Task: structure prediction
Amino acid sequence: MRGWIILAVIAGGLYYLYTETDKLDEPIAETQAVLKKIERKLDSLTGTKIIRVDGQLQNLKAEIGKRLSSAELSEFDTVLTDKNSLSDFKAQYCGSASATHPVFGKENLQFICDNL
Result:
């Protein structure tokens, strides 16, 4: 009986921390990022996928290649590696006008987001 009370108090404390504070936000985000990496790794290990070359993205890469520095172009190549990385990039950096990227300049980031 006493064990159940302790378990209930711990569960209540965790529920409070999760719902009423931001103490668990960072560990939860880290855990979700690790799970996403594992999921992608498993996807790549479980089979072969047909890779379709998207002409629009290739044209965008050629067009924007004139504007980007070598570091930005290298980062842009990592964004275009697969559909998941592209959708993650859009979700993280193209959602608001005030978004900043550690590699891309503000104007280039806006240009990329407008054309994706």
